[in-house]
Amino acid sequence: MKRPTIADIARQAGVSKVAVSYALNDRPGVSPARRAAIKAIAEEIGWRPNSAARALNGAQARTVGLTLCRPARILGVEPFFMELISGIETELSTRSYALMLQVVTSPEQEMEIYHRWWGEGRVDGAFLVDLRFADPRVSALKELGLPAVVIGHPSAAGSLTPVWSDEAVPVRETVEYLAALGHRGIARVAGLPDLVHTVLRDQAFTAACQDLGLDRHTIMHTDYTGEEGARATRRLVSSPTRPTAIVYDNDIMAVAGMSAAHEMRLDVPGDLSIVAWDDSPLSQVVRPALSALTRDIPAYGVHAARTLLSLIDGEEVEGVEDRAARLLPRGSTAPPKEKTPPVPEDGEK
User: Fold this and answer.
1) 3-state secondary structure (DSSP) of residue 162
2) CA 68, CA 107: separation in Å to the nearest integer?
3) Domains along the chain with CATH numbers
4) Does the pLDDT value for residue 155 go beyond 50?
5) 177-208 burial by CB neighbour count: b if 16+ within 10 A, else e?
6) What is d(CA 277, CA 297) in angstroms, rounded to the nearest whole number?
7) What is the pLDDT of residues 303-320, one digit of tens each?
8) What are phi and psi for residue 275, nearest 5 degrees?
9) Contact 327, 173 (CB under 8 A)
10) What's the pLDDT at 52?
11) What secondary structure does DSSP assign to 135-150, as a single string?
């Protein structure tokens, strides 16, 4: 079946195409009764406006854009972005907006996409994720004039509107909890080292360990994949000064790290306690269930989308600080095992 057109509506309504255009765009020139009849016919035959044609006429595309500079295969297993997008979509759908998503291989390609989308009138606004310090995308989007919301810390958002949550508070809460359990050697398996939220978590982790006198603390950076999480875990637990607790930057790496620990005949949590950032269903179906830093990620997406739509509407908008993650202890954390004292030889007391 071919797409219904304005000509089809005009034929059924017995009016000109100009009259149909006036009615559908709520312009004067047709009576209220005729406008209602034309809109009813359009709804009945399934007519929808052509977004490209609307863009050429200066109308809104009713679409916002999101590019992700991550391997496409990761998105299928990365709970954070799936939950974030679900929250964004929830808010957009209430306003009949669509989300245009594209995976890219570099920040340069990301900006090319945004330039093309904005120049062709395909989007009315955009989200910027995976923020870096002195991020050239921030100034480029501002120069472009594209309404944009940064999902990231305001310290690197420039003049763009940020939506963020505190990274330091949950990190400190986790380190203090593990130290209270008796852990003295704690490691952090982190994500990409040039991302703002990674740096902020690294700084908070180091500061908390130093304040608590934990001299055996380590940070290893990865690409967020399960493979890298498992590899980092093997290296850490093979060390002569292996940690008794590891905090991972996502639950994919935490689950992979748990598998690597079991492979090396370590008991979780007896020999190794594990904490994951973000509490997806994956954290709860493994055994033992993962202690996790939990937050309402879909709500995070809702707030980002609501902020962007307000920008598109021309409103004065301030940044939004979302609720920080909180620690939810489960079965993967416990006090470390006491070292078994050596058995005395015959004759020794």
Assistant:
1) strand
2) 9
3) 6-48 (1.10.260.40), 63-166+298-325 (3.40.50.2300), 168-294 (3.40.50.2300)
4) yes
5) bbbebebbbbbbbbbbeebbbbbbbbebbbeb
6) 12
7) 999 999 999 999 989 999
8) -130, 135
9) yes
10) 53
11) -HHHHHHHHHT--EEE
27 vs 55, which has greater pLDDT?
27
Instruction: Say what the pLDDT of residue 303 is.
Output: 97
Closest C-alpha among 198, 193, 223, 195 to residue 107: 195
Quote the distance between the C-alpha of residue 134 and its chain's center: 20
DSSP 156: G
Predicted local distance difference test score (pLDDT) of residue 343: 45
Pairing verdict, β 326-328 and 291-294? antiparallel
pLDDT recorded at residue 130: 92
Residue 24: C-alpha distances to residues 19, 21, 40 (Å)? 9, 5, 10
Two tokens at 163? 């939506």
Token code pair at residue 290: 């993962």
**pLDDT tens track for 234-281:** 999 999 989 999 999 999 999 999 999 999 999 999 999 999 998 888
3-class secondary structure, 289: coil
Distance CA 301, CA 239 (A): 40
Mean pLDDT for the stretch of residues 162-187: 97
- Residue 141 CA to residue 111 CA, distance in Å, equals 8
Q: Which residues partner with 245 through β-bridges?
A: 186, 273
Give the whole-angstrom CA distance, residue 266 versus residue 207.
29
Determine what percent of the chain is predicted with pLDDT higher than 90.
66
DSSP strand E in 208-308: where? 216-221, 245-248, 273-277, 291-294
Query: Within its chain, how far is the Cα of 160 from the centroid?
Result: 18
CB 136 within 8 A of CB 112: no
Helix and strand numbers, DSSP H then E, in the chain? 14, 12
Write out the two tokens for 6: 């304005």
DSSP 8-state assignment for residue 240: T
Q: Give the sign of the dihedral formed by CA 113, CA 116, CA 118, CA 122.
A: negative
Contacts of 335 (CB under 8 A, 6+ apart): 181, 182, 183
